User: What shape does this take?
Amino acid sequence: MTIWLRTTKSTMMDAAALAMRGEEHGTVVVADEQTEGIGRHGHAWHSAAMGGLYMSIILRLPLRSDAMPLLTMALGLAVQRAVDDYCGVACDIRWPNDVMLSRKKLAGIMVQLAAKDTLIGGIGVNINQPLFPEALRGLATSLLIETGHEHSKEELLDRIVAESLRYSGLLAERGKSEVIRQFEERSTWARGKPVEVDARIRGVTAGLNDDGFLLVQTDTGIETILAGGVREI
Assistant: This one.
């Protein structure tokens, strides 16, 4: 079931409420505008009216709560695949939750626990925004900006939902190793990228560990990044 709203505070809050009421796996809440869009670590997600695709999916899967980082990566792979196939572009994935295009952020993913065996996957994609606030213009982009023409939110939604269910099911069925393998193959950020993490760690990415955390080779050794903002240097 898909519930499409004109405006809401947050599709993640809406989806979590529906999950608590017993809505089934794969139920999607979509909005044309969010007034209180949520990003990772409590950051706001810029949710311009009509331009973006803001969606949250109820995922009832036999996953432990500590699988959330891997599910975030699985959904990143899903968005990358859906956008590339539909729009004819070549997206990148920045660990752990950003889909990039032309070295700018095109989409973001966040996962929250709603109840036992129930997770909410929140996805925001910049589709038809012609511009962004001044503070974001060097950091964010949209499919309209990159391709020069508008795209159907409805068609892209269908593809993202299908790929999200496929990749989250892959994680549940085959475990974390397959998601990690595909992420390392399809992200230029996973290995060999000079990065800075939260202005405190500088080095070169050296792949992911067995739990999907980022490894960074620094001058003093390997650092394991459990969370944080990763930026290219």
